Model the fold of this input.
Amino acid sequence: MTAAPAVDTAPLDHAVAELREGAVSWCATPLTERIALLERLLPRVVSGAAGLAAAGARAKGYAADSPWAAEDWTGGPWALAQNAAAFLHVLRRIAKGEEPLGPRAVHERGGRTRVDVFPATGWDTVLLNGYAAQVWMRPGSTAEHVRERAAGEYRGRPGGPAVALVLGAGNVAAITALDILHKLYAEGQVVIAKMNPVNAYLRPHFEEVFAEFVERGWVRLVDGGAAEGGHLARHEGIDAIHVTGSDRTHDAIVWGTDEDAEQRRRDDRPLVGKPFSSELGGVSPCIVAPGPWSDADFRFQAEHIVTSKMNNSGHNCIASQVLVVPRDWDGTERLLDEIRRVLRELPERTDYYPGAERRLAAVLAAHPEAEIHGDGCRVLVPDITDHDDVLISGEVFGSALGVVRLPGATTAEFLLHAVDFANDTLPGTLGATLIVHPRAEKTDRAVVEAAIDGLRYGTLGVNCWSGVGFLLGFTPWGAFPGHTRENIGSGIGFVHNAFMLEDIEKTVLRAPFAPAPRGLLTGEPSLSPRPPYFVTNRTALTTVERVTRFTAAPGLRKLPAILASALRG
Done:
């Protein structure tokens, strides 16, 4: 057996020591200065945006001006600008003596408390017209309780000086930066962030974005692999840990990897017992309810579904992996044909994440009948019947989509089966997407509401890929509550969460079923054209570049150029 390489722990120990000193001054930093720091951070996001996005594109194997590079702007600079702006919005309210939540944001319905979190500003309504998000609180939470507990860090319940370890993700550029923001601003902790080796090339970009925080001893970014991460997790100077990755990463830290690891888990004797939050992915479903779809609806929703799979080559914890469709609906085959067409028409690219080739090979070995579209990395398995299938039992983290057909030609019958299948068969509770025609929802409103209520996922997108919830900042991001460190599933806790809500159950995110102007025909009018995050959007790169700059510094004069580009998409 080859011995593990020795780890030079001195730089890591030095960084932790500096942060322990900095934790005191961060706790003492007044709200006005924390706001000013974010205001000065946003221009650095913009000035470094092109370089950050280009670095991601280069690592994935395409040019910075490729149509695919829109995702590197969306999941990089724009996500970072949007989340920083979300915190700014809330902190400015508090600084003016207002409550974090608006006067009509919290309401009780059917014995449950819900919070309207998006749109939060007038600009939100303009840029994502027709989009809305509610946070559903855990049973027993009252409206008064929710209001009182929001933004506790700034309303009488600040945390003491503490150092958090963020173990960064290797797939989406903004994840590590957003986790740093959350720890600093929502939990009041200074941060040492260990970059994932897959995208460690982003470290200089993040050091520039967080330059003031680095200079003042509040943020440190370091490189390294599992050994460095393990050393930091066990370090006595680390008070809390957040990881984005897999359940295997969590379990290796908490229980170890030796022959006694499983016994420790059974006995609940963790090697690391510090407060530990995590986002660990799972098998995400996209559920399509039957309805009165037009030809244009089939095409648009096929683009939507392919986007939820092919964004970032499927290397997303929230990528749709299982498409759940009605076996008895005459629209199922039409939808699958449109999905095939979209897959064939997309520009070439390859799966880049380590291990993707092996995981896709396992899918193909299990499914000789699988269809391969486009560049050879787009795999569609059109009819899965075995619930122990490789696409159902674990996260593939690549560009393979499996189709499961369940009974039911009506919305009511099908959704009963779909909710049970998603909750009881698919591992993970991070996110799910439900696609339902507005007229079908109107006809079976109680049934659709029951499905939304029943799906146990941290983010549920209704006519909207649930991954959009990762981007908005106001929408908490994490797994449905109930996992434990012994059975970690999709993780514990929520990040982003600019309103700093407590006792969250899930976020329900809605978007128009059809783009403008076709929304008028479905009874759901909005001004939103084809979304810029769609992989089929022809002007996505230009639109998202402009939206990033607008988000960092909004102004009416910037809107015409954004809208002109968006409409051409």
Summary: The mean pLDDT is 96. The radius of gyration is 23 Å.
